Amino acid sequence: MAFNGTWKVDRNENYDKFMEQLGVNMVKRKLGEHDNLKLTFEQNGDKFHIKESSTFRTKEIDFTLGVQFDYSMADGTDLVGTWVLEGDTLKGTFNRKDNNKLLITTRSLVGGELVQSYSYEGVEAKRIFKKQ
């Protein structure tokens, strides 16, 4: 339950290259880098409720660890996958519905910050969040 609370994006590492690898056009990539994303986590046992709020959209997601679910990224890319807890790290394994390519996402707490890491087709990126 260490993730509980609201986290606001503070900085990105290689996020533009990651979005480019996903096929996101340049205009959406530039907007995405400055989306002021906030994540609000509520964990109850193995169930999570996450609210994603940005300049462009607000989306609420409910999932249970280890149970497959559908998710749409902000650019409209549709995914299917699962989240699991590996030690203190949330690990998401998702496949794109359009091409079945694998996207791995992890969320972990490092030095009081939430670090969200992505790996897709050889490109890795991070978004670092500070607790509000």
Structural class: mainly beta
Tell me the series of helices and strands, N- to C-terminal.
EHHEEEEEEEEE
Number of helices: 2
Strand content: over 45%
Rg calculated over all Cα atoms: 14 Å
* Total number of strands: 10
Shape type: globular
Biggest sheet layout: 10 strands, antiparallel
Strand order of the main beta sheet, please?
A: 4-3-2-1-10-9-8-7-6-5
**Unreliable runs:** none
Q: Gap between N and C termini, in Å?
A: 16 Å
**Helix content percent band:** 10-25%
Roughly what is the average pLDDT, rounded to an integer? 95
Question: How would you characterize this protein structure?
Answer:
It is built from two helices and ten strands. It is mainly β and 132 residues long. Strands 4-3-2-1-10-9-8-7-6-5 form a ten-stranded antiparallel beta sheet. Helix 1 (15-22) runs antiparallel to helix 2. The model has no long low-confidence stretch (mean pLDDT 95).
Quick recap of the structure?
Helix content is about 10%, strand content about 60%. It is mostly beta strands and about 130 residues long. The longest helix has 8 residues, at about 15-20.
Highlighted features:
globular, mainly beta, 10-stranded antiparallel beta sheet
Task: Show the helix and strand layout.
Blueprint: E1 5-13, H1 15-22, H2 26-33, E2 38-44, E3 47-53, E4 58-64, E5 69-72, E6 78-86, E7 89-96, E8 102-110, E9 113-120, E10 123-131
Antiparallel strand pairs: 1-2, 1-10, 2-3, 3-4, 5-6, 6-7, 7-8, 8-9, 9-10
Helix pairs in contact: 1-2
